[in-house]
Batch of 2 targets.
Target 1
Amino acid sequence: MPKEIVTLSFGSYASFVSAHYWNLQDEAAGYSGREGWSEYADCVDYDTLFSSSEGRNGAMTYRPRAAWFDLAGSSGGASHRAEAAAAAAAAAAAGGGVAAVPTWTGGVDVHRAAPVARSAFAATLEQHEALDWDTLDEAEAARQQAVLEEAARLLDPAAAAAAARRRTGGAGTSSAAAAGARHWTDFCKVLVSPRMVVSLPGSWSGPSEHSLAAGWGAAAGGLLGGGGGGGLQMVEEGVDVVRLLAEACDSLAGFQILVDDQTGFGGYAAAVLSEVVEDFPGRPRVLFSLRQPGAWAGAADVAGPGLPVSTAQMTARARDELSEALALCRMSELASLYIPLAAPAVQLSSALPYMSSYNPALPFHTSALLAAAVDSAMLPTRLTGRRTPLGESVGVSDLHSLIQLLRPAAAGLAALHLCLPCPSLPADLQQLQRQLDTRIRPPHDSTAVTAAAAAAVAAEAAMHPRGGGNRGTAAAASQPRLVRGESVYGSTAQLTGLEQLASLTPGISGRDDTALRGGGASRAESYCLRGARTDAGPASTASALEALDSLLRRRAHRMCVRHRCATPMPLALPLPFPDLFSPVVSLHGDIMLSCDDGGGGRGSGTKVTDAAAGGAGNGLPGSVSTRAAAGAASASAASAALTAVPVGPGGRAAGQGVASVGVLTRLQATSEFMGWVRGVQARWTRGAGAAAGRAVLDAWDVGRDDATEVSDRLHELVGKFAADDDGNHY
C-alpha cells in the first residue's frame, strides 16, 4: 500500500515551480507506457503523488494530490471555477448588458476588458487530446506533432526570439521576445481539479510580483487580520481544501510545500499550516522557501556605494530583511524541514556550465530549474525498489525517515545542491565491459541508437544504389562512421568531485570546510543520483553507487551521516520544459567533448558528437541519435586533455530538445547554517531598530513584544548549532 504525499503551493512564483514539477511527474508517468522504458519508469511509484478515478466511460483519470493557492487572475485563460465560467458565458450571451440599478436613473457605461487568451500550447494540447491518433497516417501525425512543438517553443521567450531570428535573419524579433509563458496554466499539462485551486483576492501582475501583499506581515496583519471576517474565511477555505486532499489518502505520508514565504503568501501559508499541523499531528512537512534569483541577499546596498538612498528604497530594504526573519522563525516552527531555494542569479554559473541558454531574468527558466531539483531530491520517497535491467533502485526511503536523517543535525534547516546535467561517472574498464553486455540495451543507450542510425543509412543506400547514380554513395559518405560504445571511452565530461554541485540555497556554499564563517562541517547528507551514465552509456545502479562512494571517500573524514540513493530512471524532460542546455549536451544527457592529446597526432582534434535523426522534440517516440567517433579511442585516451566543443546541428536536430538527463542532488544539514542564521539575526536587528523598519512593523501590527520573540527565536536557532559544536556530536 503506497504512502501518499500531498503537495501544496502558495504564491505566484510557487505556482510556476509547481507547474513544472507536475509536468515532470506527468512525463515520467507517461514513460511507463513506452516500449523499452516501462521497466525503468515502473521503479517510481506514481500513486504517491497522483490520485486516480474512473470516469463514466470507464477511462481512468489521474489528478495530482495538490492544491494551488494564488491570486485571482493568475490562471490566465484557464477557468477553474464552473460558476465563473457560466457567469462569463451568460454575460457574453447577453451582449454585455448590465442589470438595472434601482437607485440610479442615469446612464451606465460598461468597460469590460477582453478575456485573457489561452496559450497556443494549452489550446493545441487540448486539440491533440481529442484526436484519434490510431486513424492518422504518419505524415499527419508528424504535422500535428510539429504544431505542438512550435507552440511549446513559444512558451520560452528566449527560444521564440532565437527561432524568429533564424527565420527572418535577425529582423522582427520584438514580437517574438514578447511571447512566453505568463501564467502557470500556459504550460501546465496535468489535469487540475477545480476545487484544488484557491483564488485569493488581489491584483495579480506576474509571477515575479508580490501582489498579494508587500512583505510577510502585510498579509498576516492586514489582509488576514482585517475586520469583517474575510481573512478568516480565506484561511478556512484553504484549510478545507487541504483536509479534503489529506483525508482522501489511504495512508498519508506527509506534506511537501512550495511557498513564496517572504511575501504576503508566507503569512497566509502560516495561517493555513498552523491549522493543518493541529489536524494532522505527527505528519512530516517539508517546506521549500522559494526566492527570486538574487533576491534577499541582505548584504548589497540598495542604491550602490556613494549614492543617495531614498525613503522608498530604505523601506523596501527594511521590508525584505524583516520578512526574511519572520518567515524563518514562523515557518521553521511549522515545517519539519525548512529548505530555502533560489536559482542562480548569473547566466553562466561555474557549477552549471552546461546550461548556456539559462536566463535568470525569466521565471519560466528559474522555476524549471528549481522544479527539477525538488523532484530529484525527493525522489527516494517515491521509489518502489522494483528490479530493472540495470538493477534495482538503492536507497529507497520514506518521507519520515528522510526528515529524521536531516532534521536533528541542523535544527530543521537543510540546503539543496544540484548537478544538472550530471557528467559521466568515472568507471574502470571492468565496469565498462559489464555495461557493454549485449543483453542489456536500455532505450537511452548510445549503442542502441547507433544501431538504429546504421539501419537508416543502410535503407538510404538501398533506395539509391550505386549503379543508379551517386546519391546513395554521397549519403553514405556524409554519415559519421558508426562505432561501438567502447570507442567513445574518454569522450564525455567526467564527474571528478562533489564540488561540481551547484548550491541552490542562498548563503550556503556546501563546502565541508570548518574554516568557513560559522563553520562548514557537514552533519548529515542525502544524495540522489538518477540516470547515471558513463562513457559506455547508462550505468547500472551498482556501478553508480560504487562511483558515488568513491567520490564521497575523498571528502573530509568526519562523523557525517550519509544516505545514498541511486536509480536508473533519468529525469525525463517534458515538451514544455525550456531548453536550457548547451549544444554539447546530447539527446540523453551526455556532455560531449573533444580529445586533444596536444601533439597533433591521431587523437588531436578528435570530436565526438551525437548526430540526430528522426523526429524532433523532447523525448518523442521515434527520435533517435547516433554517436560517431572520428578515429579509434582507447583506455589511454581517457588521460588526454578534454575540451568542450559545441556539438552544433549534428548533436541534436534543429529545434530538438534534450529528452532525458542524469541528475545528482544533495540535501545537506550543515553547521554553515549557524553563520547563515546569524546573518538573518543581524539584518533583523538592524531593520527592526531603524525608523523605516519600525514603521513597517507597526503597519504589520508587530509589536515590540512580538519583535523580541523573533529575536529570541533566532538566538535559539544559533544556540542549537553552537551546542552541537561544543558537544562534538558530528
Note: Residues 311-334 form the longest helix (24 residues).
Target 2
Amino acid sequence: MRGFSRVILVGLLASTSQGALAQEQSAAGQAVLEEIIVTALKRSQPLQEVPASVTVVQGEALARTAIVSLDQITQVVPGIRMQSAPGGTINPVVRGLGTSSSNDSFEQTIGLFVDGVFAGHARDYAAALFDVERVEIVKGTQAAILGKNTSVGALTLTTKKPGSQFGYEASYMHEFELGSDILNAAVNLPVNDSFAIRVAGQFADEGGWIRNALTGQDEQSSNRKAIRATARWEPNDVLDWTVSAQAHWIDRDGQTFYAGADTLGRLAETAAMYGDPAFTAAIRDVSRGTVRPGFEKIFDYTQGWRTNSTINLALGDHTLTAVTGYAEYDMKRLINPAGVRQAPVLRGATEHNESFGQELRLTSPEYERFSYIAGAYYYHDKWGNFDYLDVLPQVGTPLNGAVATNQEYKTEAISLFGQVNYAVTDALDLTLGLRSDNQKKRVDYTRTIVRPGLLATAAYPAFVPTRMSRKDDFVDYSTSLSYKLTPDAMLYASYATGSKGGGFQASPSTIATAEFGDEGAKTVELGGKFSFGRGTVFNVALFQTRISDYQIAINTGAGFVVRNDQIQSRGVDAELNLALTPDLSFATSVTYADVEKRGALPANSIGGIPFAPKLTGTVQVNYDTALDDHYSLNANALVEFRTRQHIIDLANAVIPTSGSYAKMNLRVGVAHDPSGIELALVGKNLTDRRVVNYGYNAFAQAGAAIISTDPSRTIGLQVSIRH
C-alpha cells in the first residue's frame, strides 16, 4: 500500500476535462454548471451521477482547436495518451495501460466505439475526426456493459445528429509554421417534421515537421479528406432511426521516424556505402533517409468507409435498441526502417479489413427503483495483412535477402450481457453487471522467399501454408455501490473484471512463436464526485488494475517478440473545475499511475512498461466575455504535461526513455455574435517542446536507434461561421 500513500498526496492536486462541465450564468449573473449527459455506459446519465471515472470533451473544444484526428486529442483531452507508431497506427493509453503498437494484429485494450459501434483495429483510430458532438473516455474496467476489449477503458465518439432547424457551420484555418490548411463544414437540412439530414466534411492538408536533409522535403506531410451523411427519422413517439455513412482518405508522404542514435557508427558506415558520407544520427528532427531506387516514395495511404444504424423502438415503457455497423478499409505503405539513404532495409505492407457488428438491447425505464439493461452482441471481422521485408547488405551484419508474409485473419464473437440497478434506498444504489463472451479466431499464414539470403534462413524462414485457430470463452462481471451524501455529493466503490482474447502475431519470425494468450483485468475503484456552488466541481478516484497475461510486443531490432506479462497499475484520477467569476473559469486534470510488472521480470525487460508516465494532466484557464452588444471575446490557455516515460521494453535499449514535458496551447478569438462569425488565433506547443515519443533498436544494427519526435509548434489563423 506504499504506492497508495503517494497516490493520495498527488490526488490533492485535482483536475477536470476541457468542456466536460460547461459554464453558463444564472439569472443573478452567477456562474453555474450546465449539466452534462453521458451515454457511454448505455444510459443517458448526468456525468456527476455516474459511479465511474468518465471524462467528457464537447465537440466544440475539438473544432475550436482544429483537431482533425484522434492522435491529436491529447492536446485538449486529459487522462488519455495517444501513441503513434511507424505505419500510421495509433494506440491509446489510459492510466498507463494500453495496447502495444508493435503488433498490428492486437485487438485494442482501450475499446473504440463510434456512435455505439465497436472498431477493433489500431488503424481505426487514424480515421478523420470531425463534426463530433462529444468524446467520452471511460477509465477502468467496464466490460460487462461495454463489451469487447474494454478491459482497462473505452473511448466513445458521438457524432452530431440532424436537428429540426436549418443550420450550417464552417471553419477554415491556415497554419503558418508548417503551411497547413484545415477546412471543416456541415449543413443541417430538415426535410419535414419527422425527417432531417446532416452532411459534414473535412479537408486537411498538413505539412511535416521532420526536415529531410537529402530531399529538402518536410516529412510527414498528410492530406486528409472525409465526408459523412446522416439521416434521422422520427415518425412518432414510438420509433426513431438514425443512419449514417462516412468515407475517408488519408495520404501521407514521408515518415516521422529517423535515426536518433548511432553509438558504434555502423549506420554511418552503411549510409556512406550507399552514397551519404555526411550522415550523422541525433535527436534533432532531421532525417537523412530516402527511398530505394526503383520505388517512387515513402508513403502511407488509407481509404475506408463505415455505415452505422441505430433504431430505438418503444415497447410500452421499455426501449428496444438495435445498433448495426459495417466498416471497411484498405491500407498500403512503404517505410525505411533503417533511416539511411536508399533504404537498405525496406518494408512494405498492405492491409484490408472488413468488420460487422450487431447489438440488440432492451432497456427498462430509468425512473423505477429496479432497472435493467439486457442484450446480445455479434461481431465478425476479416483482416488481411501482406508484409514484405527486403534487406540489402549493411555494415556490421550478415543479414540480407527478402521475404513476403501473407496473413488472413478471421474473428467471430458472440456475447450476452446484462446489468441491473437497484435503489436500495433513496441514497444508496447497487449495480451488478454480467457478460458472457465466446470468441473464435482463425489465421492462415504463408511466407515465401523473394530473394535468398541469411535473412530468410536465420531470421524469417519460409513456411508452408499453415492454418491456426483458437477459442476463448470469458465470463466477466462488475459490481458497484454509490451513496449520495447530498444531492450534490456522491461516493462510490466498484469492482470489475474484463478480458481480451488471445491471437496470432502479424508477420511472426516463426510459426512456433505466432500465437499469444488472452489477457484478463481486474479493477477496483473508490471515488467521490462533489458539486459546489458557483460552478465548482471536484471529482477524485483511487484505482488499482491488475492484468494477468498482459499482451505486450517488443521490437528487439532483430525481430518482434510478443509476451504475456503480469502488470499492475495503481493511482488516482482527480478533477477540479472552478468558476472564478461569471467570465473566468479554471480547470485542471491529473492522473497519477504507478505501473509495474509483478513477479519475476522477463529477460532484458524493464520494471515498468512503455508509454506509462507516472503523472499526466492538463491545466487550463478560460475567459469568455461580451465586449459590447455585438462582439464577444474567448481566450483559452491550456498546458498539457507528462513526466518521463519508457519508450521500449528493453533494458539494453539504445534510447530507453523520453523526457518529461509541459506544452502550452493558446487560443484567442473574437466573435461577431449577430452573424455568428469568429476570427481566432490558435497556437499549439508554443514553447516548441520536442521529446521522443516512439523508438526501437535499429534492425540488425547494434548501438543504433530509430525514433520519432512530437510535432513542432504551430500557429494558425482560424475563421468560422455558425448559423
Note: Residues 2-722 form a domain with the Maltoporin; Chain A fold (CATH 2.40.170.20).
